[in-house]
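Technical annex, item 7. During the second reporting period the consortium partners agreed on a shared format for inverse folding records so that results from different sites could be compared directly. Each record opens with the tokenized structure and is followed by the designed sequence. A conforming record, contributed by the partner at site C, is shown below for reference.
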């Protein structure tokens, strides 16, 4: 039965991690290298993430500096950024690409908050689905006579505690990201 709980906990951790990654890739008016995580560059016919082609630094809160290791790839990187849904125009000086992150409008901030709330809810639903699956497995074990009814209740309580813990983590991530987006 321990393996059912361990598997559920691992799956819940992955769900929280996925939500965290989603939040990191959303633009919140502040420069972060994670903004470029989803962008791939066609590098010699192979889709390659920007962070595998260049050094990405944040010299100022609203500026990303992309310094390609291969100067020949600078135009490909620039095109990939322009095609992406970032909505930021890159400035290319031949050696580095500068991305200036514009100030978010209040309307855009509210849209982003809606997006992160939706993603957080998707994460919560995933965790509740994991709880349901774990409880179903435990009930099967009880029907097969491998555990008693009391053990079933105890294990279900443990699964519920895990569920509460990881949903709380998602809520904390949501609150932090919402504050970050709404700060002026």
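Designed sequence (site C submission):
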């Amino acid at each position: 039965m321990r393996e059912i709980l361990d598997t559920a906990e691992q799956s819940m951790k992955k769900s929280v991690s996925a939500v965290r990654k989603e939040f990191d890739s959303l633009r919140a008016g502040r420069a972060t290298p994670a903004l470029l995580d989803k962008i791939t560059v066609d590098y010699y016919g192979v889709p390659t993430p920007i962070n595998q082609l260049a050094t990405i630094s944040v010299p100022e809160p609203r500026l990303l500096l992309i310094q390609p290791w291969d100067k020949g790839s600078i135009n490909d990187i620039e095109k990939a950024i322009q095609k992406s849904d970032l909505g930021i125009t890159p400035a290319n000086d031949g050696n580095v690409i500068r991305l200036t992150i514009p100030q978010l409008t209040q309307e855009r901030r509210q849209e982003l908050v809606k997006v992160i709330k939706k993603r957080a809810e998707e994460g919560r639903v995933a965790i509740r689905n994991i709880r349901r699956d774990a409880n179903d497995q435990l009930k099967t074990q009880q029907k097969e006579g491998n555990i008693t009814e009391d053990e079933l209740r105890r294990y279900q309580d443990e699964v519920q505690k895990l569920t509460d813990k990881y949903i709380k983590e998602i809520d904390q991530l949501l609150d932090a990201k919402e504050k970050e987006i709404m700060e002026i």
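The chain is about 55% helix and 15% strand. Residues 106-143 form the longest helix (38 residues). All partners now use this format for quarterly exchanges.
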